[in-house]
Amino acid sequence: MGVFKGIGVLVFCYTVYCLFTGNVYAKDKASGRTVYKADEPGGYWTIIVIYFGLSIACFFFF
Prior knowledge:
The chain is of the alpha+beta class. It has helices at residues 3-21, 41-60; strands at residues 23-28, 31-36. It has one domain (3-60).
């Protein structure tokens, strides 16, 4: 397994974990912040979709 495939698997596992917990940590400007599903559902699902797409891209395209 290549490095990028491993990173893709790890990002996918983190995405699934975030789906179960209802919060996700994402970069925000110079630092990062936790986005909660209950507080910002639109932002939460946007980040989940981006992380899922990143995991698929790392696994299949790199």
